[in-house]
Every structure is written in C-alpha cells, then in structure tokens.
Backbone:
C-alpha cells in the first residue's frame, strides 16, 4: 500500500490493504486484519467483518460531509500514532496478557515506573488498549459512512528499543529522543492565564525541554545506574501527561466544526476518555522522585518546593484538579475548563506539538507531508449545523 493525496484535496492516507512485511504476530496483525478486512470486506460484501460493516452502513445516516470525514480521518491518524507509542510503553512497562500479548516487560523499568504508582503497569496496559480501540472504531465508523479509513503502516520505518522485553519491529513513533514540554503542568494550575487568550506557561521540568531524552530504555545498557533508569521512568511519567493532555484538547477543539450529530457524539464520547487518562497521569507524574540523572545531568525538581520564578501553587503535586481560569474573555468569572480549546488550526497545532516533542524523529518527509495534509483537511472543515 502507499499513502497518497486525493485529487480533491481532501487528503488522507490510503486505507486499502497495507503491507504487513513489518508486522509481527499478535495483536498488531489482528489490527491490520481488521483495517484491511474492513476495507476488503466492505468493498466485496464478503466475509463476516464485511457483512457486519455493511449492515451497520445500512442503518447509518448516509455519507459524511467532506469536513466530518476529514476530522475523523485526522483523529484516526492521531489515534494510530498514539497506539504505536503506547504499544512501545506497554511492551516494556505494561502488563502482558491475553488482551495485549506483545512484549516481555523490562523488570528494572517496571520497578522504576512503580515508584510513581504500584499500578503503573496496569494503567499503561489499559491506556494502550484504549488507543487501539479508538482508531479501530473510528476507522470502522468512517467505512460505515462511506469514507476511507486511515492506514499508516507504510510509515512503520523507525527502530525498536533494543532492551530486553521490546519486540523487534518497525515503529511509527520514537520514544528514545524526546523533548518533553511539561508546560501543561503549570497551565492547568493557573488561575489567570489561558493559552486561548495568548498566554504561555513555564515547564514544570525545564530540563526535559533542553535535550533529547529516552522515555523507554534504549537497550539494557540504560537499566543502570538506578538513577538513570528512574530518570527514564520519570520522563515517561511526564510524557504520558503530555500526550493525553493533547488528546484532551484536540477532541473539543475539533468537535466545534463537526456537522453531523452522530459524528459529534463520537467525538464527545471518545474525547473525555483522553481527559480521564490525562487526569490519571498528572496525578502519577507528581510521584516521580526528584533526582539528577548522573549520565546526562537531567534534573527532576521537587515540585512540592517553590521553583525559580514560580510560586508553589504552580507546581504542587496534589493540585491535579483543573484550576478555574479565564475563558473566552477576561471579563467573565474564572471557570474550571479544558485548555486550550481554540478550534482554529487545532489539528495542525497537534502535529506541531507532537513533532516538537521528538515523537517523529527519524520519520520520512513523506510521513510529515501526509500527516500535515490530514491536519490541513481537518482544519479546513466547517460545521453545517
Ligand atoms: Fe486516544
Ligand atoms: Fe490518548
């Protein structure tokens, strides 16, 4: 398969049968089967999956508007990318079971993650499964409404961690050279600022913005010394929050330009699960042990002490509920809200943030072109309600 731009300008990754040359056994193969099987089955009207989709389509509300399809396609791509990164976290730090059997786990990494919460492996597993369900559902829904699903398998070109526990397969995302923006931490603790009103926010962990850091062990060499693997687990802990706050904003931002009530329902039903993830991770990251990584000098400060230029309320770890802040216009009383939710350029903003995060380091120019086309099409959608 290949990704391409449609002549209509309504660009998307091609949803036809994907190459499985990089696909391992296990649930990724199952996912590929689902994505391909839906495409083939729906087209040919054959097979149990195809019949299910066809029946669903008969009951649906007809074809999507171009804008709704573009929004759903961008969200599907975002969820595929989320799944890819969470899958890497799960292989090394999550629970391997019948639901997500891939990977073998890395005991030293899991032990370091457990400093944040003894249930971290369960939460990583469940977040991974949620993302898998998000893109699988959105793709099936797109097809049921006569639109093409998204398949990014063509772009699985990045290497896996060499650490014991990781599968050796090609990836879409890179968790080994991250530059994590932790300004979400102070953004959700501010009573006076809102990114939608032009405000900016200092990072809680400034060191994470000043380099390229692994959030998973790159090899078994990274498993010691103890403060180094703990720094890697801490980086993961803050990265979990970064990823999920992005989804928390993306869904309400795009929902404002959806036309069909059922598509709106899809966005309003998936989006808050990202918020549930974010809330969990923002609680757990607060337990990351303060330390300095002896191998590279990365500092995780004690957030329960006032940091330079900040007041304690900007970073205190138990302040995990969204602080009421200004919304729409500073003339209104403060209100507890998701922030940002500005709809202008929201999809491209997400691409930019994930790119600056280092998540796509090593990806091909064609990957960025396709992702930006998906974002551009989503951002061009206008509501017909
Ligand atoms: Fe998701
Ligand atoms: Fe998510």
Residues:
């Amino acid at each position: 398969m290949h990704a391409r731009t449609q002549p209509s300008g309504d660009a998307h990754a091609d949803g036809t049968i994907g190459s499985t040359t990089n696909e391992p056994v296990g649930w990724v193969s199952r996912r590929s089967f689902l994505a391909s099987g839906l495409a083939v089955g729906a087209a040919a009207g054959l097979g149990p999956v195809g019949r299910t989709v066809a029946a669903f389509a008969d009951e649906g509300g007809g074809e999507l508007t171009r804008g709704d399809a573009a929004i759903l396609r961008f969200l599907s791509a975002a969820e595929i990318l989320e799944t890819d990164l969470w899958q890497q976290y799960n292989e090394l730090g999550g629970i391997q079971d019948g639901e997500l059997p891939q990977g073998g786990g890395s005991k030293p990494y899991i032990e370091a993650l457990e400093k944040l919460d003894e249930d971290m492996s369960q939460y990583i597993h469940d977040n991974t499964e949620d993302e898998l369900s998000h893109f699988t559902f959105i793709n099936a829904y797109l097809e049921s409404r006569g639109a093409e699903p998204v398949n990014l398998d063509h772009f699985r070109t990045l290497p896996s961690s060499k650490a014991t526990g990781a599968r050796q397969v090609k990836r879409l995302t890179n968790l080994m050279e991250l530059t994590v923006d932790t300004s979400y931490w102070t953004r959700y603790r501010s009573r006076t600022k809102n990114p939608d009103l032009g405000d900016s926010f200092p990072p809680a962990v400034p060191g994470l913005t000043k380099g390229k850091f692994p959030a998973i062990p790159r090899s078994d060499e990274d498993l010691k010394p103890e403060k180094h693997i703990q720094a890697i687990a801490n980086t993961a802990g803050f990265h979990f929050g970064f990823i999920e706050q992005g989804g928390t904003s993306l869904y309400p931002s795009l929902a404002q330009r959806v036309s069909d009530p059922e598509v709106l329902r899809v966005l309003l039903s998936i989006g808050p699960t990202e918020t549930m993830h974010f809330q969990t991770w923002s609680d757990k990251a607060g337990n990351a042990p303060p330390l300095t990584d002896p191998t590279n000098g990365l500092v995780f400060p004690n957030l329960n002490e006032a940091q330079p230029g900040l007041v304690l309320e900007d970073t205190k770890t138990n302040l995990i509920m969204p602080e009421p802040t200004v919304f729409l216009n500073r003339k209104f009383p403060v209100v507890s809200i998701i922030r940002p939710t500005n709809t202008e350029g929201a999809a491209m903003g997400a691409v930019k943030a994930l790119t600056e995060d280092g998540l796509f380091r090593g990806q091909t120019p064609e990957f960025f072109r396709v992702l930006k086309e998906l974002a551009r099409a989503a951002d061009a959608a206008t509501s017909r309600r």
The chain has a mean pLDDT of 87. Residues 83 and 130 are 8 Å apart (CA to CA).
